[in-house]
Amino acid sequence: MGRRGVKEYRAPEALQLILADRDRQDLVCPSCGSEDIIRTPKRRVRKVRWEADRQVTLHCTKCGRHAAYVPKAVTQPSEVELGSV
Ligand SMILES: [Zn+2]
Fold first, then answer.
1. How far is the CA of 36 from the centre of ligand 1 (A)?
2. Which site in 11, 20, 24, 39 is 20 to 30 Å from 45, CA atoms measured?
3. Exposed, middle or buried: residue 43 (CB in 10 Å: 0-12, 13-18, 19+)?
4. Is residue 82 part of a domain?
5. DSSP string covering 13-75, please?
6. CA 28 to ligand 1 center in whole angstroms
7. How far apart are CA 39 and CA 11, in angstroms?
8. What is the pLDDT tens value at each position of the chain, 85 positions in all?
9. How far is the centre of ligand 1, averaged over its atoms, from the C-alpha of 44 (Å)?
10. 4-41 burial, b for 16+ CB within 10 Å, e for fewer?
């Protein structure tokens, strides 16, 4: 029980969400379009140093999809051509 509700994003969707978060843009679920994304840990506006080695999880409360990444490990530029995956 419980675990069945957790779905992974497809890779291009996860990448899109991860890059949006890394660039501190508004988070919109690439799968269902919801803006109700729970980010863990929460962004701290006053925090000067980005916690680059802590895992960030992004969870859409609407469709239940889930992505996780470590900011330090994401080296791709923002202009990613998702169609080439
Ligand atoms: Zn969603």
1. 8
2. 11
3. exposed
4. no
5. HHHHHHHHHHTTPPP--TTT----EEEESPP-TT--S--TTS-EEEEETTT-EEEEE-GGG--
6. 8
7. 18
8. 445 667 899 999 999 999 999 888 999 999 999 999 999 988 776 555 566 788 999 999 999 999 999 988 877 665 544 444 4
9. 23
10. eeeeebeeebbbbbbbbbbeeeebbbbbeeeeebeeee
Note whether 38 and 32 are within 8 A (CB).
no
- Domain count across the chain: 1
For residue 51, the CA-to-ligand 1 centroid distance in Å is: 25
Range of the domain at 67: 3-73
Closest CA to 63 of 30, 39, 85: 30
Measured CA to CA, the distance from residue 83 to residue 35 in angstroms comes to: 23
What pTM was computed for the model?
Answer: 0.75
